[in-house]
Predict the 3D structure of the following.
Amino acid sequence: MRDHLKGQAFTLALLLALLAPPASAQAPEAGLVGTWKYLRNFTYVDVDAQGRVFQCRILPDLNLFISTAQIASNAEVLWEPVRFFSLYGREVSPSGQDWGLDTIELRRLVMFLNPVDPGPGVQRMEFDKVPQLPTLCAHYLALSREE
């Protein structure tokens, strides 16, 4: 009986280890999960329970930039290469932008993306929670998760 229980405990531990995210990834604090809008323009960030981060920047001409990232154990967000899509959905490559490395934090009801190495014109971004992504961004979020 005791060996059977040990075998079950081992199997359960192995299953949990296989289902756990990589050691470098971290689940975000509960308050970060959701959709956020930058206060100064049409930039949106979506954070899911697995610590995946999606950013969508809609330009006035309805072209957009997107990027994805994973929250690391030290609250760092290293953005994947930025992708640019025209109004008609054609991807233009390369985008010419690199969002680099940020840290993500939640203070009360405000989310901040803080650049680790701010260059000229790069600043801390402050986001408020919103109910959902705009349709255009939601479309590209779904595409980025399928890839």
In short: Helices lie at 2-19, 135-146. Confidence is low (pLDDT under 50) at residues 4-23. The chain has one domain: 24-146. The domain at 24-146 is CATH 2.40.128.500 (Lipocalin).
